[in-house]
Write a structure and sequence with these properties.
The protein contains nine helices and two strands, in the order αααββαααααα. The chain has helices spanning about 1-10, 10-40, 50-65, 85-95, 95-115, 120-145, 150-180, 185-195, 205-240; strands at about 70, 80. It has a two-stranded antiparallel sheet.
């Protein structure tokens, strides 16, 4: 915790911008959730005691899943796949987009308390915003019309947005930020990709993210979506107990 506190102090401006992004996404989610309730003719509190408890539970499960990461044969070793978005997507379908953003934030907060940060919060911000790029659009779409067809559309749209956004975010921000942070030429990082993926054009950041990052996000989004679609309906009566549909 002391190391985490020191990191926060040393990177105060960056941490402040991180929190600003969290607040912005939460406000957007909140407004869209209220709009969805209005369209469906449902009026219920955005947060209530049971929902807060379930948000905490899903966040804890997500944090545990985040600790189990799997290497990918087509990407450098610093890219690993985890399924921490699975409980968050299920929870955001049940409790709305605002809950989804809150779960993404709590997941990162718990991870920081357990493991700290080795990237001066850059990797943690990336995990948060890329996770939200799946959960937020999917849960917003589902919030306006809750049925099976909409859930399928929501998962497809969320997966595509995460794939496109995550790919662009890596090219524009994340890879250059890591190169600067570790005082390493960007070409050195890119060469790690060309060594494990023969489809990559050496020295091209666009090629790197297209053949290394995009498939990872597509696999993650598709896997999380398929499992969510399979188990959400059976879980729905339990998740919705004590609240309106």
């Amino acid at each position: 915790m002391k190391e985490l506190f020191n990191n926060v102090v040393e990177n105060a401006l960056y941490v402040a911008s991180f929190f600003a992004i969290i607040v912005l996404l939460f406000v957007i989610a909140l407004l869209l959730e209220k709009a969805g309730q209005k369209v469906r003719g449902v009026k219920e509190p955005i947060f209530h005691t049971r929902k807060v408890a379930m948000i905490g539970m899903f966040s804890a499960i997500s944090t545990i899943l985040m600790l189990f990461e799997f290497p990918l044969p087509f990407a450098p070793s610093f890219y690993e796949l985890d399924f921490s978005e699975l409980p968050i997507l299920i929870g955001s379908f049940a409790y709305g987009p605002a809950a989804g953003v809150m779960m993404e934030f709590i997941k990162i907060l718990l991870k920081l308390c357990i493991k700290g940060t080795s990237t001066a919060f850059v990797g943690d911000l990336a995990n948060f915003v890329v996770g939200c790029s799946l959960v937020l659009p999917a849960s917003v779409i589902y919030a306006f019309r809750k049925n099976k067809i909409t859930a399928i559309i929501a998962c497809i749209v969320g997966t595509l947005i995460m794939t496109v956004f995550g790919t662009a975010f890596n090219a524009i921000y994340l890879l250059p930020a890591f190169a600067e942070m570790y005082h390493m030429p960007l070409d050195t990082i890119l060469s790690m990709g060309s060594k494990v993926n023969p489809l990559m054009t050496e020295g091209s950041i666009v090629s790197f993210v297209v053949v290394c990052v995009a498939p990872m996000n597509l696999i993650k989004g598709t896997s999380v979506s398929l499992v969510t679609l399979l188990i959400y309906k059976p879980l729905s009566p339990i998740l919705k107990a004590g609240r309106q549909a």
